[in-house]
Amino acid sequence: EADIYQTPRYLVIGTGKKITLECSQTMGHDKMYWYQQDPGMELHLIHYSYGVNSTEKGDLSSESTVSRIRTEHFPLTLESARPSHTSQYLCASSEGVYTEAFFGQGTRLTVV
Amino acid sequence: AQSVSQHNHHVILSEAASLELGCNYSYGGTVNLFWYVQYPGQHLQLLLKYFSGDPLVKGIKGFEAEFIKSKFSFNLRKPSVQWSDTAEYFCAVEEAAGNKLTFGGGTRVLVKP
């Protein structure tokens, strides 16, 4: 069983609010990812990290930002939430090349 | 940038039928290939993976996939599905040099009892 946790699982928030989605893993993995997934749709990579103090933007442009100050923690922040940010956000981690990624349960965000 | 295509968005079949889901990718270099499954209400989990060696790989729950390099394909198969195979299936490709993990659009599979 993979040890990767996302909080909160569900969040409903008003437009303009700042939010941080938490993602933590206890496996010591260097690589971490954030994906955005609309219901029934594909996963879009929005951010990834190779390790502490390294972050990269993914294939899908996103107004969110990430940080990687500690190996185990990879939070995603929206400075000003909008209804277009309504989606499911999935966090994943992997040990490196030639290993699979482990996923968290996801955070379902609704911006009203 | 690499892309991953899954040709079927929805598949409906009866128990004991055979299943094959197509996956093609665009990257020309060395790749690592994965199939993930997401059961209703659960998180994504690995079904099988290919890094090198025998292009026919076996995964959990009777699934297998075949890597055909010349066709840039990594199709998933199961000879006889069960109702419990109802899920969404995602193909994913990782550039061996680039470390980015890209997913296909997913295929929703509904197995009727």
Describe what you observe in this structure:
The complex is a heterodimer of chains A (112) and B (113). With 112 residues, chain A is mostly beta strands. Chain A has a single domain (4-111), classed as Immunoglobulin-like. Chain A has strands spanning 4-7, 10-13, 19-25, 31-37, 43-51, 54-57, 65-66, 76-78, 87-94, 102-103, 107-111. The N and C termini of chain A lie far apart (35 Å). In chain B, the strands form three sheets. In chain B, strands 2, 5, 6, 10, 11 and 12 form a six-stranded mixed β-sheet that branches. The model of chain B has no long low-confidence stretch (mean pLDDT 92). Chain B has 113 residues and is an all-beta fold. Chain B has a single domain, classed as Sandwich (Immunoglobulin-like). In chain B, a hairpin with a 5-residue loop joins strand 10 (87-95) and strand 11 (101-103). In chain B, 33% of the residues are buried. Chain B has strands at 4-5, 10-14, 19-21, 24-25, 31-38, 45-50, 56-58, 64-68, 73-78, 87-95, 101-103, 107-112.
Distinct helical segment count of chain A = 0
Helical fraction of chain B equals under 10%
CATH architecture of chain A: Sandwich
Q: In CATH, what is the class of chain B?
A: Mainly Beta
Q: What is the C-level CATH assignment of chain A?
A: Mainly Beta
Residue stretches of chain B low in confidence (pLDDT < 50, at least 5 long) are none
Q: What is the CATH superfamily classification of chain A?
A: Immunoglobulins
